[in-house]
Amino acid sequence: MLTKLGQKFTDSFTKYMPSAYVFALLLTLLTGILGLTLTDSKPINILEGWYNGFWNLLSFGMQIVLIIITAYCIAQSSPVKKGIDYIAKLIKTPTQVYLIIISLGALLSLVSFGMVVITAILARELALRIRGIHYPFLVACVYFSFNGWVCGLSSSIALLLNTKNNFLIQNDILSNTISTSYSLGANLNLAMIVLFVIISPLIIWALIPKSFTGKELKDLQTSLDDEEGTVKDEALSYKLPFKALSDALNNAGWLQVSVALLGIIYIIYHFTSKGFDLNFNIMIFIFLILGMLLHITPMRYSIAMKRASSNISGVLFQYPFYAGIMGIMMASGLGEKISSALVSIATPDSYAFIAYLTGGVINFAIPSAGGEFAVIGPSIINMVQELGSSLSPTEVSAMIARASMSVAYGESLSNLLQPFFLLIIFPVMGKGIKIQARDVVGYLFIPFVLLFIIQALIVTYLPH
Q1: Whether residue 274 sits in one domain with residue 152
Q2: What is the per-residue burial (b if ≥16 Cβ within 10 Å, else e) of 242-265?
Q3: Which of 310, 328, 357 is the C-terminal boundary of a domain?
Q4: DSSP one-letter string for 342-397
Q5: How far is CA 428 from the centre of its chain?
Q6: Same structural domain, 122 and 254
Q7: Which residues, 6 or more positions from 421, have their beta carbon under 8 angstroms from its beta carbon?
Q8: How many Å apart are CA 432 and CA 311, to the nearest integer?
Q9: What is d(CA 449, CA 462) in angstroms, rounded to the nearest whole number?
Q10: Are 43 and 91 members of one domain?
Q11: What is the pLDDT, as a whole number, of residue 340?
C-alpha cells in the first residue's frame, strides 16, 4: 500500500514540480511579493537586498564545489575503486543497497554534512555493478540519508551557540555560550539520532518500488562517461614519445607526495591544537591532501580533478539565486516577521514545536541552517527567555538549546521537499544521465510526512 501511495506522489511531483533553478526563480518572485505586501519595505529596498544577498553565499558555494570535486577525485583513485569493488561483491540485492546506503549515509552525516558526497559516490558505483536498482529511488535514498547531519559534529546551530563572541552574544541576545551538552548531548538529540539511523531505513524499506523497469542507471544514461579509461591510462597517454623534463615533473610522485606530507603535518596540528574541530574548511583540506596521496602524481591528480569538475554548473549558478532570496528575507524583515508571528502563539508546552515549525517554513526561502538562524534565531531565543523568566539560568539555557535544535530539525526535514541541496548530489549521481528534482522528490514525500509527525511528537513531549 505504501509503495503504491509513494508512486502516486512521485507521479504527481514528476508532473508538477519544476527544476531546482525554476523553483528558485518562482521562490524569488514569491518572496519579493510577500516582502512588499507584508512589510513596509520599498521596492528598491527589496531589490537592494536581493542584489546584496547574491554574494552572501559565495564562500559557502565554493566550499560546496570543492567538497564535491575533492571527494569525487578520491573516488577515482585505484585504491578506492578496488575497495568499492570489494563492497559490491558483498552486496547482492537492490534492497541491501538501499538499506546500506540509508544507514551508512546517516552515520557519515553525523560526522559532517559534506560526507553525503561519499555516500553518493558509493551509491552510484553500486548502481553500476548491481542489477535491478531503481536509480531515481536510490538518489532519493542518498538525499534522505543526510537528513540527520544537524544532530552531528557539523551541526551549525549547535556549534554557533557554543562559539565565543558569536553574533548572538555581540548583540546582547545571549549573555554566554551554551555548551553542546545542552544541544548535541541532550536526550532530544539522541532520540533524533536513533530516528535517523534506525527508524529511517525501515521507512525506506517499506517504500521500495516494486518495479525498476526503465529506471536502472544504464537505462537513464545519455553518455558513456562511466566507460572512459582509468585516470592512470589517460595520464600515460599524455607522455611524449621521447624523454622530456616536462614529463618527468608532470609524473613526479615525489613532488606531490612531499607537498601532501606538509598537509598531513598541518592536519595533525589542527586537531591536536583545536580538538575535534571538523569544519568545512578542514574537511576540504583533508580530502584535497588524501586525493594527492592516492593519485600520487600531479598528472593523475589533475586529470581526476578535471573529470570531477565536469558537472557542477548547478551549484555555480543556482546558489547565488538562493542567496538572493535570503537577502530579500533579511532586507525586508520578512523572515523575522514570519517567525515573530509564530513565536507570538508559543507556550511553555509548545515553544519547541513552534520553533520546529518555524525552521521548516523559513527553510524554503533560506535553505541554509546558519543563514536561517541568523534571521529567526533572535526571535526564537527572545521567546524562550520570556517563557523562562522565572526559571534558573541553567533551565533557560536548556530551553534555548532545545528550541534552537528544534529549528535545525525543522530546517533539515523541509530539505526533503526543497531541491536546493540536491545540487550537491546531482554532480555525482546525475553525471551522464537525465535526472531532475521532480524525478526524486516524490519518493521523499511520505518520509517527509512520517518524520514530521514523529519529530513533532519528540520535540513536544520528550523530557529534557
Answers
A1: no
A2: eeeeeeeebbeeeebeeebeebee
A3: 310
A4: HHTT--TTTHHHHHHHHHHHHHTT---HHHHHHHHHHHHHHHHHHHTTTS-HHHHH
A5: 14
A6: no
A7: 143, 146, 367, 415
A8: 9
A9: 19
A10: yes
A11: 79
- Looking at residue 239, its pLDDT comes to 86
Residue-level pLDDT at 278:
64
Question: Are 109 and 94 members of one domain?
Answer: yes
Query: What type of residue is 163?
Result: T
CA distances from 258 to 182, 188, 197, 248, 303 (A): 43, 46, 40, 16, 19
Residue 269: Cβ-neighbour burial (10 angstroms; 0-12, 13-18, 19+): exposed
Boundary (domain end) residue, out of 310, 338, 356: 310
List residues bridging with 394 in a β-sheet.
none
Could you tell me which residue, 15 or 390, shows the higher pLDDT?
390
CB 384 within 8 A of CB 351: yes
120: left (phi over 0), alpha (psi -120 to 50) or beta: alpha
As a whole number of angstroms, the distance between CA 142 and CA 429 comes to 9
Tell me, yes or no, whether 189 and 84 share the same domain.
yes
21 and 99 within one domain: yes
Give the whole-angstrom CA distance, residue 136 versus residue 388.
47
| Amino acid, single-letter form, for residue 301 | Y
Q: Which three cell numbers stand for residue 142?
A: 542518498
For residue 5, is pLDDT > 70?
A: no
In this structure, are residues 245 and 255 in contact, taking their beta carbons and an 8 Å threshold? no
Lowest mean pLDDT among 8-22, 182-196, 333-347, 382-396: 8-22
If one counts the domains in the chain, the total is 2
Distances, alpha carbon 184 to alpha carbons 149, 222, 354, 355, in Å: 11, 44, 20, 17
Mean pLDDT score, 303-327: 81
For residue 347, give the nearest of 393, 404, 412, 399 by alpha carbon: 399
What H or E segment, with its residue span, contains residue 334? helix 334-343
Q: Which residues pair with residue 221 across a beta bridge?
A: 433
Q: Residue 190 is part of which domain span? A: 2-227+311-461
Q: Per-residue pLDDT averaged across 66-87, rounded?
A: 83
286 and 409 share one domain: no
The chain-wide mean pLDDT, for the chain, equals 86
* Mean pLDDT confidence for 295-300: 92
d(CA 219, CA 78): 27
